[in-house]
């Protein structure tokens, strides 16, 4: 069985569109909705329903594959499923993936760290004061999920001396790919859900 995670019932899964040509015709594909909301009660119900579906297949002796973008242990929906199943006696195999920021830095030829550079991986959804504190001490930063507040994040990077050496990348590897090498030009522009900024502090500010 192939578990197909979605944010919404009617939304096409990018992860599935990438792997579907490798899935055998006899493989059963099951949709599982993992809503991106902060309502813990609603989330708990969704996770419990999906856990029940997966357990039913496992108890039938079937193998279950959970597909996800990036690495399964970094800001991944899979982590919730892993936590629910890891102590139930079933063998779980985690296959490493390529995180978005690694794909972006290689794709754009943007070295993210050298020598003793300190790199921070930060969700842009974190509290602004927390992000600012991280930017104060790191040499390079990866800011993920910037789609909601990209203007605010770019403003912080300008203030902290990162904006001159940064890349904003959206939907890398797809037909909708967008690469912005002067992020100041994108400050007031909307960007997609799959958007990440990688940045290095200017050498004179280190």
TrEMBL record:
CDD domains: Precorrin_2_C20_MT. The keyword Transferase applies. Residues 14-181 form the Tetrapyrrole methylase domain. This is Precorrin-2 C20-methyltransferase. It comes from the Bacteria. One of its GO terms (molecular function) is precorrin-2 C20-methyltransferase activity. Pathway: Cofactor biosynthesis; adenosylcobalamin biosynthesis. It holds the Pfam family TP_methylase.
């Amino acid at each position: 069985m192939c578990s197909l995670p979605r944010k919404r019932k009617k939304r096409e899964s990018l992860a599935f569109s990438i792997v579907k040509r490798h899935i055998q015709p006899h493989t059963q594909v099951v949709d599982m909705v993992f809503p991106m909301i902060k309502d813990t009660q609603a989330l708990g119900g969704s996770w419990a329903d999906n856990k029940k579906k997966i357990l039913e297949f496992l108890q039938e002796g079937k193998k279950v594959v959970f597909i996800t973008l990036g690495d399964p242990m970094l800001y991944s929906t899979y982590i919730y499923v892993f936590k629910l199943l890891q102590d139930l006696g079933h063998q779980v195999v985690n296959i490493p993936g390529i995180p978005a920021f690694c794909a972006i830095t290689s794709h754009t030829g943007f070295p993210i760290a050298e020598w003793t550079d300190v790199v921070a991986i930060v969700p842009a959804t974190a509290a602004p004061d927390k992000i600012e504190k991280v930017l104060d001490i790191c040499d390079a930063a990866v800011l993920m999920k910037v789609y909601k507040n990209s203007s605010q994040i770019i403003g912080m990077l300008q203030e902290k001396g990162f904006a001159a050496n940064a890349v904003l990348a959206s939907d890398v590897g797809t037909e909708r790919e967008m690469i912005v090498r002067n992020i100041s030009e994108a400050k007031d522009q909307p960007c997609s859900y799959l958007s990440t900024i990688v940045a290095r502090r200017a050498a004179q500010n280190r």
